[in-house]
Amino acid sequence: MRKKRVLSGMQASGKLHLGNLVGALENWKAMQEEYECFYFIADWHALSTNYEDTGEIASNRFEIAVDWLATGIDPEKSIIFVQSQIPEHAVLHLFLSMIVPVPWLERNPTYKEKMDNIKNKDLATYGFLGYPVLQAADIALYKADLVPVGMDQLPHLELTRELVRRFNNIYKCKVLKEPDAKIAQVSKLKGTDGRKMSKSYNNAIFLGDERKTIEKKIKGMLTDTKRARRDDPGEPDDCNLFPLHTIYTSSEEREEICKGCRSAGIGCGDCKATLLKNLLPALEPIQEKRRELLEQPKKIEEILSAGSKKAQKVAAATLDEVKTAMKIA
Q1: How far apart are alpha carbons 206 and 6 in whole angstroms?
Q2: Is 157 helix (H, G, I), strand (E, B) or coil?
């Protein structure tokens, strides 16, 4: 019986951080044992917001591959590939862009959010408005059964499903497959400033950070604002640090932290010291593997090239079916 196929990707717009690790990579690693997994580095997607500054996309692509391999994404179990090495992504994106209604794109909540919040870049481009069409092409090319997403990403996937249905209806075929969501239940990590952890906000703890850098970031992290003084009681659920404790600190220690925080029996410095005691050893195997991989750039490129060749065979077969359905083969 064929394994269900999973597809997911990450944009090559910067280095990966703890939020990427707990929000995606640990789930990806587990799925390798059950599903046929296709994981791709979305370097063309990075152009949607970084089209004026492309100088770091190639290095980001390499760093992402290193992080994936260091965290256990296995090229023997998964197909790891690069979007730009497979031109079929661009071709199917073109075909789908011809049939997508503009209002479908304008209602995208992420589009509205970023247009409101990112003021230092000109995002009034088709590339930014239409990136969900490229995303739909990425998924449809591989006839993915499942796409792992968080709840906030469901509107993106629903647009892909609608676009697949529209293509199949217009051309009276069943060539493209509607993917289902595989909902990932993960802790929402806050960055050092209390906002969502993001490379865009310069508040992230990166997988490649040195030990001293991580210590400095954790020690400087904002905590519960009600604890203005050492003897003020706090509330762990209101603390930016606590979601990290739920991942890296044992339940017994968390209970003690909660009691100490609420009674002011411990200070925020004590809480941070406990987190570092648990976080740093958990990250050390990943960082050690990263150091090994960084010494083998040729091996990284070989893995990406081999994976891209495997992925392209699947993509080319789907595109042939698409052209036949459209009667332009």
Answers
A1: 26
A2: helix
Phi, psi of 41, deg, nearest 5? -90, 115
Residue that is written with structure tokens 């676009």 in the block: 163
The CA-atom distances, in angstroms, between 57 and each of 3, 177, 203, 220 are 33, 30, 20, 30
Instruction: Please indicate whether the domains covering 5-189+297-326 and 209-291 agree at the CATH topology level.
Output: no
Homologous superfamily of 209-291: Tyrosyl-Transfer RNA Synthetase (1.10.240.10)
Mean pLDDT per segment of 10 residues, for the chain of length 329 residues?
Answer: 93 91 94 97 90 90 97 98 98 98 86 69 84 96 94 86 98 98 80 86 92 96 88 91 94 95 94 96 96 96 98 98 96
Residues annotated catalytic, as ranges? 114, 196, 199
Measure the N-to-C terminal CA separation of the chain; round to a whole number of Å. 32
Domain boundaries, the chain: 5-189+297-326, 209-291
Mapped onto helix, strand or coil, the DSSP state of residue 193 is coil
Angle, vertex CA 55, rays to CA 207 and CA 112, nearest 5? 75
Query: Which pTM value belongs to this model?
Result: 0.92
CATH topology of domain 5-189+297-326: Rossmann fold (3.40.50)
H helix runs in the chain, sequence order: 18-20, 26-31, 47-50, 57-70, 88-97, 102-106, 109-117, 126-129, 131-140, 154-170, 211-219, 242-248, 251-263, 268-294, 297-326
